[in-house]
Amino acid sequence: MIKTMHLLRWTCLSLGVAFFLMPLISTAEFSLSLRRDGYSFDAYRYVFADPDFISSFSYSALIALCTIFVGTILVVPTVYLVRLRLPWLRPAVEFIVLLPLIVPPIILVFGYVRMFSSSSLLPLTGTSRGSDILLICGYVTLALPYLYRAVDTGLQAINARVLTEAATILGARPITIIIRIILPNILVSVLSGAFLTFAVVISEFVMASLLTRPAFGPYIQRVGVAKAYEPAALVILSFFITWTAMGLVQFLARFSPNVQRESK
Amino acid sequence: MNLVASSAKTNTALHLSGIIKRFGEHEVVRNLDLEVRKGEFISVLGPSGCGKTTVLRMIAGFEHPTTGRILIDGSDVCRLRPDQRNLGMVFQTYALFPNMSVAANVGFGLKIAAMADRDIQRRVAEMLELVGLTGFERRFPYELSGGQQQRVALARALATKPAMLLLDEPLSALDAKIRLSLREQIRDIQTELGITTLFVTHDQEEALSMSDRVAVMNSGRVEQFGTPLEIYNRPATRFVASFVGTLSVLKATLLDPASGAVEVATATLKNLEIPQGLARGDHISLAVRPEAIRFGVHKGDAILRGKIAGVGFYGSVIRVRLLVGNETITIDIFNTPLSPPPSRGEDVDISIDPNSVFVMRAE
Amino acid sequence: MSVSEKDVPELGISEPSKLPITRRASALRRLDWSALIGVAPFFIFALVMMVAPTVALIANAFVDHQGHLTFGNFADLNTPEVAGAFAESIRLSAASAVIGAVIGLGLALTVGRGIRSTKVRSIVMTFCGVASNFSGVPLAFAFVATLGRLGLVTVAIKAAFGIDIYAAGFDLASFWGLTVTYLFFQIPITITIMMPAIDGLRRDWCEAASILGASSWQYWRHIGMPILWPSLLGTLALLFANSFGAIATAYALTGYAVNIVPIVLYAQIRGDVLHNESLGAALALGMIIVMAFANTVYLILRTRAERWLR
User: Fold this and answer.
1) Using one digit for the tens of pLDDT, what is the confidence trace for C87-104?
2) Helix residue ranges, H only, B83-201
3) Domain range list for chain A
4) pTM for this predicted structure
5) What residues does each domain of chain B span?
6) Closest CA to B127 of B145, B147, B110
7) Which of A57, A119, B170, B307 shows the smallest number of beta carbons within 10 Å?
8) For testing the chain B interface, which of C201, C210, C211, C227 should be mutated: the one with the most B CBs within 10 Å?
9) What's the CATH class of domain B246-361?
10) Residue C223 touches chain B, beta carbons under 8 Å
C-alpha cells in the first residue's frame, strides 16, 4: 500500500517535470539544429556576434540597474520609517504596493503615453532620454511589490525596532543607525529583491516595445520574426539568466540573519 | 497465546515487553518492559531525549518498535493503525483543528464513528461540562487561551470513551499558574472516569503530585517504576535520586562497612546503610534530601559542623546553603514565624538521620 | 455668600474661542515631520508615476473626441468585438486559472507532503520562481518549438504513434493552445503560493485526527482541504487576475488571432486598427475593475486563512 502511494507520487512528479522540461528541451534542441547535418552551437555564435544583441542586452542590463537603484532608495527608507515612526501610514503604503497588481503594465504604459506625450506639461515621450526615464519608472512600479515584500520581511526578521532602540540608547543618531546597523542586516533581502527585479526587467517586452526603447525584450521579438534558429538560442539564454538570478535569491536566503522574531 | 488469554483476565491495561526502538544507528529505547493496571494514572518521567515521547508514540501507533510487543487490554496492537486502536491522545501543542468550532472539535471522533447528530451533541455537552467549558461550543480555537485549548483537547480525547488516555507533555506550553490548576483538573477527571492514563513529562513535580506510579526513564531505559513515595524516598539508582527532587551530596570515605562508619570532612558518622560491594577505604558519596537535615544537635543522628554560605527565601520554604569542609550542601527548612532564619557566616551544627542518607559509589 | 475661586470651574470659561486652534496646532506638532520627509519621495513617485497616469487614463474614458463629458464610450464597449473580447478573456483566464490551480495543488501536495526530500523541494521551488517569471516572447517561442507544427513533441508523436495532432484539430495559436502555454507560469505560481499553506498543515493535526479514528481520506475531507480552501480560492483569484492582464505571451503566440482584451487594448494604443483613445481608456477601466475585483477577493481570502492559522 505504501509502495503504491510512493509510485503514484513519483509518477505525478515525473509528469509535472516532463511538462515543464519539454518546452525547454525542445527549444534547446532547436537552438542546436542550425546546421542540417548535426548539432552545433552556430545559432549561439551568430547571436553573440550580433551587435544588436550586445547593445540591447547592455541597454536592458543598465536599465535594470537603474531600476534597482531607484527602487531601493525609494523603498528602504519608506519601509523602515513606516515601521518605526509612522505605523499609521502602513495601509497607504500597502495599497500603493498593491496597485501594480491591479493596473497591468499595458495600462500603465498607456497612461504614460497619454500623460507625458508631446503636448503635455512633461513631454517625456518626445525624447529618448525622457522615454528611458519613463521606462525606468514603469519598471520600478512593476518591481515595487517584490522589493517591498523583500525589505519588509527582512526588517521584520531582524526586529528593526528593537535594534534601533538598543542603538539609540547606546548613543547613535538615526542616520548612523540606518547606515551601520539596518542596511548591513537587510542587505540580503535587498539583494534578493534586486535579483528578482533584474530577472523581470531583462525579459520584459510590453513596456519597452510601447515606449519604443531598444531593450532586450523587443530585440528577442524582432529576432523571432526574422530568423528561425537564433530565437531559440536567445530563449535558452534568457532562461538561464533568469535561473541564475533566482538561484542567487535562494542561495542568499541561507545568509539572511534570523534574529528572534517580534512577539505579537 | 497463553499470555494473551491470561492478560485479558487480569487487570493489565497495557503491557510493553522487550521494546527496542532504533532510529538508524541510534538506539532510542532499550529493552523496555512496563505493565500498567486498569484505571491507573502512570507518569513517564525523564529528561529530554530519554525516549519517553517515543514510547508514547509507539503505543499510539505513530512509530513502530524495532522489536518487542505492545499489548493493550491483552491484544497485540502492532498490526493496528493509530485510527484503529481506540485510544485518546492529548498533544503538547493542543492540535485543535483550526477550521472547526469547539463543539465540532470535541465531536470529531464521534462523527467519524458515525454517531447520530443528536447523540453527538449530547455527548459534546457532557464533555464540555466535564472540563468546565460549557457555553464555549461555538468558539474557535484561535479565540481561546492556551489553557482553554488544552481543556478542549482533553474533552475531545475523552469523548470517544477510549480504552486508554495518552498525554504527551500537555502542560509544558502553559503558564505556571494555569499548569497548576490544570494538573489538578486532569487528575480529578481521571479519577472520576477511572480511565487508564499514561502521562509523559519532564517535570518531576507534575509526575510526583499526579500519579499512582511513576516510571523514571533515562537514555531509553526505565530506571525505576514505583509509587511517588518510593521513587522519592528510596531511589533505586543515582540518576533517579538526583533527577527526582533535590539532593545534597557529600564526599566521604568508608571506614567500616560492618558498622556503617564513614569519614566526612574530619567528622565520623555511624550507622549508615552501606550497599554491597564496598570495602574499607573506598571513596563514596553521601546523598541526602534537603528536608532530612535539621539544625541543632539531635541524639542518634549524625552530627556535622558547617558555615552558612547563603540563605534563599522561597515563601513557605527557606533554602540554606551550608559549607561543610569545602563542599556546599542544601538544607530546606519551613518558614515559621517563631524561629528566625539563620544568617550568613554563622557556624552551625546540623543533624542527619542515618536512615535518610543514600550511600553511593563516588563518581 | 460670595463665590470663592475654588468654586469656579477652570477650563474654557474664560477664553473658549482659543481651544480648537490650540488643539489643531498641537496635533500638527505631534506629526513626525522628519520621518514624513523621509517617506515623501516614495509617495511623490507613487502619485506622479502610478496614480496620476492611471487616473488621467480613466478620466479619458468619460470624455469623447471633442472633450465633452459622456458615457458614450461605455456604450461603444458593447460592440460584438469588445464584448466578445471580454468574454474570451474571462474564458481564457478562468480556464488557465482552474486548470493551473488543480494541477498546481496536486504537484504542491506531491512535493510538499508526499516526497520528503528537501533537495527535490528546493529545486522545485527555485524552478517555480523562474517559471512564474518566464512569459512573453520566450515562452511563446518555447511552446512553438514544442507543440508547433514542426515542434519536437508534435513530430515525436507523429513518429511514434502515427498521429498528426494538427490534423486532429489541435492548433497552438488558438484558445486552448494559449491556455496550455499559460499553464507554464500559472502552475508554478500556484505551487509557490500553496506550498507555505501546505507546510502550515501541522503534523499533529493529522496525528490527532488519526487517533480519533479518521482515515487518511477523512482527514483530507474534514480538515486538510477545508484549511487549504481559502488559500486555494485566493490563488484562483490571483491566477485569474494574472491571466487577464497578460498580453506579451498572447501577442507573441497568436498575434491578433485570439481576441482578448489586452490585445484589443494594445491595438488601440498602437493605433493599428481603430485609433480611438477614448475607447481604449474605457477598455482600460473595464480591465482595472476586473483586476481590482479579483485581487480584492484574493486578499480577503488570504486574510481569512491567516486568521485561522494564528
Assistant:
1) 888 889 999 999 999 999
2) 102-112, 117-131, 146-159, 176-193
3) 51-253
4) 0.79
5) 2-242, 246-361
6) B110
7) A119
8) C211
9) mainly beta
10) yes
